[in-house]
Amino acid sequence: MTVHDSKGLNILQGAATTCYVALSPQIEGISSRYFADCNETSCSSLANNEYEARRLWRQTNALIHGPLKPQTIYDKGINCPMTKTCTSK
Predict the structure, then answer these.
(1) Distance (Å, rounded) from C-alpha 9 to C-alpha 17?
(2) Domain of life of the organism in this record (predicted)?
(3) Within-domain flag for 58
(4) pLDDT computed for residue 43 by the predictor
(5) DSSP 14-83
(6) Is residue 82 part of a domain?
(7) Is residue 87 part of a domain?
(8) Cβ neighbourhood burial of 79 (10 Å; 0-12, 13-18, 19+)
(9) Which residues does residue 36 pair with via DSSP β-bridges, in sequence order?
(10) Does residue 63 sit within a domain?
């Protein structure tokens, strides 16, 4: 079975740019550039949008540090030391 991403790339094709940038002697010493499909290219204007970057940071921080929802723990039947209402099933 071959797994494809949303662009229709399989795992090897999807990893090609990362491997190219990490291992290619052709781009040794190049830094702070954007690559796609094994070629240097421009990133979207959204990537340089300071407002959106801060907004994404805040949302990510809230997701990472947000409280666990007790109903998720109930559904899994896990004993939860963080709340007194969780019980093991």
Answers:
(1) 12
(2) Eukaryota
(3) yes
(4) 87
(5) HHHHHHHHHH-GGGTT--S-EEETTEEEPPPGGGG-HHHHHHHHHHHHHHHHSPPPHHHHHHHT---TT-
(6) no
(7) no
(8) exposed
(9) 39
(10) yes
Q: Which of 18, 13, 11 is nearest to 2 (CA)?
A: 11
pLDDT of residue 10: 84
Question: Which two tokens mark 24?
Answer: 């290619």
What is the total count of domains within the chain?
1
Q: Are 71 and 86 within 8 A, CB to CB?
A: no
In this predicted structure, the answer to whether residue 28 has a pLDDT above a threshold of 60 is yes
pLDDT digits (tens, 9 = 90+) for 34-68: 999 999 999 888 888 999 999 999 998 888 887 65
Q: Is 4 helix (H, G, I), strand (E, B) or coil?
A: strand
Note whether 43 and 52 are within 8 A (CB): no
> Cα(89)–Cα(78) distance, rounded to whole angstroms?
7
Nearest to 18 by CA among 5, 36, 41: 36
